[in-house]
Design a protein that fits this description.
Layout: E1 18-21, E2 24-27, H1 87-97, E3 101-102, H2 108-116, H3 128-146, H4 150-158, E4 162-166, E5 171-175, E6 184-198, E7 204-218, E8 237-241
Antiparallel strand pairs: 1-2, 3-4, 4-6, 5-6, 6-7, 7-8
């Protein structure tokens, strides 16, 4: 496993392009993307929030979770969304989902649309208009600053590529400022990303990278469940992915 990348930027910023030399495909991971403005959440220094603690990281992976919104998405190369009220379990799955796909089983837009179903409103905003605006902004941030750019997807697709992401270590859970309910958490963790491509000779070549990412989740009665699923209000949902990790 390669050493942790300390480059700033998004989860996919660590991936470079392909260069063809003398009929042989070599994969070089080099490019980094700039960090967009607004990656830090707004905070109120006068607000107080009760501290939260996290239990030791479970050894199970998202694929071993019993209850999920739609188990069939695994057939498309995606991570199933768990039905759970446990923030750490959900954070692990959500971080993995933002970096797991198979370019031969779905399109880029289908994958992004699926990730969009994991989202819910930020309940710190009281008006419906503000909640809708923040939800739209969070989904746009995911597309523009967090997940793999479409050009990189196309490059992988040309090489029958797929990507698998896991969270093998600890998840740090922290309270969200101005959240009177105490139902929201920031979850930060290291993510191991495995890229697999055709080597151009009938085989495959794989490599790993490690990045760190933060997600904001809501596990409380304000969450909006996925329609026509067993998910209920109170089950965990995504509020926002951040373009770079939030550290104390």
């Amino acid at each position: 496993m390669m050493a942790r990348s300390n480059r700033r930027g998004v989860i996919w910023a660590i991936v470079g392009g392909l260069i063809l030399v003398a009929g042989m495909v070599a994969i070089i991971v080099a490019a980094t993307m700039s960090n967009p403005e607004g990656s830090e959440p707004e905070t109120d220094p006068t607000a107080t929030t009760a501290p939260t603690t996290s239990d030791p990281a479970p050894t199970t992976s998202p694929s071993s979770i019993d209850e999920v919104v739609d188990a069939t998405v695994d057939e498309r190369g995606w991570v199933p969304e768990p039905i759970t009220t446990d923030a750490e379990t959900y954070v692990r799955a959500a971080l993995s989902a933002a970096g797991t796909f198979d370019t031969q089983l779905s399109t880029y837009e289908e994958w992004l649309a699926y990730l969009g179903t994991w989202f819910t409103y930020d309940t710190r905003y009281t008006s419906d208009a503000d909640r809708e605006a923040e939800l739209d902004a969070a989904r746009l941030e995911l597309r523009q600053s967090v997940v793999l750019p479409e050009t990189e997807w196309d490059s992988l697709e040309n090489e029958a590529g797929r990507v698998d992401s896991t969270v093998p270590g600890d998840v740090n859970l922290d309270p969200v400022p101005n959240d009177d309910s105490g139902d929201m958490s920031f979850g930060t963790a290291d993510i191991t990303i495995t890229f697999t491509r055709s080597d151009g000779s009938g085989g495959e070549v794989s490599y790993e990278e490690i990045t760190r990412l933060t997600i904001q989740v809501l596990c409380g009665p304000g969450s909006i469940p996925t329609p026509d699923s067993a998910q209920q209000a109170g089950d965990c949902k995504v509020v926002r992915y951040f373009a770079e990790p939030l550290e104390p």
